[in-house]
Each structure stands twice: as structure tokens, then as C-alpha cells.
């Protein structure tokens, strides 16, 4: 296989740095291993963020996600690690990651983690009739 997992998250310049807008990324095939049993855990990750100066590059994000396939990780730990890593390279105004793990032992787990730049003010929500 020529494409290999990589922890190197790449970025590119935000094409509209003066505008607040939301980027939503769905990752329906995330996998890691249960640290207790070694069995695979499957999840759908939803990443939402308001970029500041940088955006995450999608192919690099895909290869980053592949690095978890053979790693044991608790749901809470892996979700927070992903948030920390992406925030470290992009420094967004806001980021939320929602990890919805498939059933294991009759239990579904959803972990939601957020980052907010304290200097950023979210725009007022507009509700149209």
C-alpha cells in the first residue's frame, strides 16, 4: 500500500478569514481498538469548526484518522486527543467534535468535546420565518 497513516496534519490558508463560517466534516468509518479487549470500535465522527487563519486539509485528516486503527483508546480519550491535535495546527475560533460509537456490550457511547477561542465572539444566530 502506497498511502500510509500519518500524524502529520496539514493546513491551508482560510480563503475568507474576515468571515465567520462553519466547516462540517463527517467521518463515517473511524476505527480504533478497545484498550481492554483489543476488539475494534467503530464510530462516526462529526467535526464542526469556525476557522480563523487556517483550515485542515482533508487528505491529511484522513491519513491522521487512519493512525488510530491499530491503537487501543478509550472513547473519551481518543475524542479529546483528536480535538487537541486539530486545534493545535489550525487554531480555530471554535471547534466541536462529536464521536458516536457503535454499540459495544449493549451500550452506545457518544462523546462531544469543544474548543473555543476566548477572544472570539460568536455571531448572532439568524432565524428566518
UniProtKB/TrEMBL annotation:
<dbReference type="Pfam" id="PF14489">
    <property type="entry name" value="QueF"/>
</dbReference>
<dbReference type="InterPro" id="IPR050084">
    <property type="entry name" value="NADPH_dep_7-cyano-7-deazaG_red"/>
</dbReference>
<dbReference type="InterPro" id="IPR016856">
    <property type="entry name" value="QueF_type1"/>
</dbReference>
<comment type="similarity">
    <text>Belongs to the GTP cyclohydrolase I family. QueF type 1 subfamily.</text>
</comment>
<dbReference type="GO" id="GO:0008616">
    <property type="term" value="P:tRNA queuosine(34) biosynthetic process"/>
</dbReference>
<dbReference type="InterPro" id="IPR029500">
    <property type="entry name" value="QueF"/>
</dbReference>
<keyword id="KW-0671">Queuosine biosynthesis</keyword>
<dbReference type="GO" id="GO:0005737">
    <property type="term" value="C:cytoplasm"/>
</dbReference>
<keyword id="KW-0560">Oxidoreductase</keyword>
<keyword id="KW-0963">Cytoplasm</keyword>
<protein>
    <recommendedName>
        <fullName>NADPH-dependent 7-cyano-7-deazaguanine reductase</fullName>
        <ecNumber>1.7.1.13</ecNumber>
    </recommendedName>
</protein>
<comment type="function">
    <text>Catalyzes the NADPH-dependent reduction of 7-cyano-7-deazaguanine (preQ0) to 7-aminomethyl-7-deazaguanine (preQ1).</text>
</comment>
<feature type="binding site">
    <location>
        <begin position="75"/>
        <end position="76"/>
    </location>
    <ligand>
        <name>substrate</name>
    </ligand>
</feature>
<feature type="active site" description="Thioimide intermediate">
    <location>
        <position position="34"/>
    </location>
</feature>
<comment type="pathway">
    <text>tRNA modification; tRNA-queuosine biosynthesis.</text>
</comment>
<feature type="binding site">
    <location>
        <begin position="56"/>
        <end position="58"/>
    </location>
    <ligand>
        <name>substrate</name>
    </ligand>
</feature>
<keyword id="KW-0521">NADP</keyword>
<dbReference type="InterPro" id="IPR043133">
    <property type="entry name" value="GTP-CH-I_C/QueF"/>
</dbReference>
<dbReference type="GO" id="GO:0033739">
    <property type="term" value="F:preQ1 synthase activity"/>
</dbReference>
<feature type="active site" description="Proton donor">
    <location>
        <position position="41"/>
    </location>
</feature>
Amino acid at each position: 500500500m502506497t498511502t500510509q497513516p500519518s500524524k502529520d496534519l496539514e493546513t491551508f490558508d482560510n480563503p475568507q478569514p474576515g468571515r465567520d463560517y462553519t466547516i462540517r466534516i463527517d467521518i463515517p468509518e473511524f476505527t480504533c481498538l478497545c484498550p481492554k479487549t483489543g476488539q475494534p470500535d467503530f464510530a462516526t465522527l462529526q467535526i464542526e469548526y469556525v476557522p480563523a487563519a487556517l483550515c485542515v486539509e482533508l487528505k491529511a485528516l484522513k491519513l491522521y484518522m487512519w493512525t488510530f486503527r491499530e491503537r487501543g483508546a478509550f472513547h473519551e480519550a481518543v475524542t479529546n486527543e483528536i480535538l487537541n491535535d486539530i486545534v493545535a495546527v489550525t487554531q480555530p475560533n471554535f471547534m466541536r467534535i462529536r464521536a458516536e460509537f457503535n454499540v459495544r456490550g449493549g451500550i452506545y457511547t457518544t462523546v462531544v468535546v469543544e474548543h473555543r477561542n476566548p477572544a472570539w465572539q460568536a455571531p448572532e444566530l439568524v432565524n428566518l420565518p
